[in-house]
Amino acid sequence: MVIRSFPRTVALLVARILAFLALVVLAMGFLMPVLRNARERLLAPSDFDTLALGSIAALAAALAATVLCMKFFERLRWVDVGLWWRPATQWNLAAGLFAGLVSAGVATVVPVLFGAGEFLPVTSSNADLPQLIYFLVVIAIAAAGEELQFRGYLFQVLVRATGIIPALLITGALFGMLHLGNPGSSRLGTLNTVLAGVALGYAFWRSRDLWLPIGAHIGWNCVFPLVGDELSGIGVHLTGYRIFWKSAALWHGGSYGPEAGLYGTAGLLAMLVLVRRLPVKRQDAPLLESGATPL
Fold it and tell me: Is the pTM of this model over 0.85?
């Protein structure tokens, strides 16, 4: 057994975290201009194309940082962060999708059923099949990128060093801070995003892979544009219908969407319950094991 002093242990943890974050930022800084230039050559720019480029760059940057940190700090394969593709992971991905869809339904459809709002047709929407597929793919890429950033290497080295509760709180707070600049952001919206980070971190803790939180995140994000409501301040209406709320903004979140309201709080609490109760196939988590190679 290797026994290290407390200051050295903290220094190694900080080195890993800073290296991962620096690699993500550097990779994003490199990839965004490259992708933006390619977009301008091939496509007519739009706001959502910008979001798509950011999502692709974020996923690629997180993947690059993960590969390097896993190889040089841990002497592990990049898939050991929880990205193996096995029958168990397919089950966990499906369970996560179910949890995300149901919990987002609690935040949107359930209040409408109880009279807090109504679905009405709108003339301006992206309601055609190619656009629908395109937007849902972009939403899935964005969710996968955020999970790799916040529940991948960063989260798992924190769990290994500090335990699950501090790791959930730290990464949940960072996840909330990431969304502070979104249109219509509010204090309740930030708190709900922290709660989302905790729920998704707990999903990893239950399954020991990233597929359960990735599925939950994708399921959650897909519901809002499908039912016609804002997703983290971004309005993409895919079906020709949208929700017109009758309740106060405190409940439905105003221009940010239900994630900034009490309906969103209820949905995220439902996600926590579902993640806790659903049958999940727990896998090995090499990065959490104390035997990982030290620096």
Answer: yes
Element housing 118 (H / E): strand 117-121
pLDDT at 89: 92
Chain position carrying tokens 């969710």 = 143
pLDDT of residue 192: 96
Residue 112 covered by a domain? yes
Give yes or no for a contact between 29 and 57, defined as CB atoms under 8 angstroms apart: no
Separation of alpha carbons 192 and 82, rounded Å = 25
User: Which among 217, 209, 212, 230 has a CA at the least distance from the CA of 288?
Assistant: 209
The range of the structural domain enclosing residue 136 comes to: 6-284
pLDDT score for 41? 61
Whether the CB-CB separation of 217 and 146 falls below 8 Å is answered with yes
Contacts 24+ apart (CB under 8 A), 123-129: 124/237, 125/228, 125/237, 125/238, 125/239, 125/240, 125/241, 125/242, 126/236, 126/237, 126/238, 127/237, 127/238, 127/239, 127/240
Distance CA 20, CA 28 (A): 12
Structural domain contains residue 258: yes
Domain count, the chain: 1
Pair 157, 17: CB distance under 8 Å: yes
- Closest to 184 measured CA to CA, from 292, 87, 258: 258
In a domain, 293, yes or no: no
Residues 146-181 pLDDT 10s: 999 999 999 999 999 999 999 999 999 999 998 888
Q: Which residues of the chain have pLDDT under 70?
A: 1-6, 38-48, 124-127, 290-295
Query: What pLDDT is stored for residue 294 in this prediction?
Result: 38
For residue 168, being part of any structural domain is answered with: yes
Q: Within a 10 A sphere around the Cβ of 49, how many other Cβ atoms? A: 17
In angstroms, the Cα distances linking 239 to 36, 100, 106, 128 are 28, 19, 19, 8
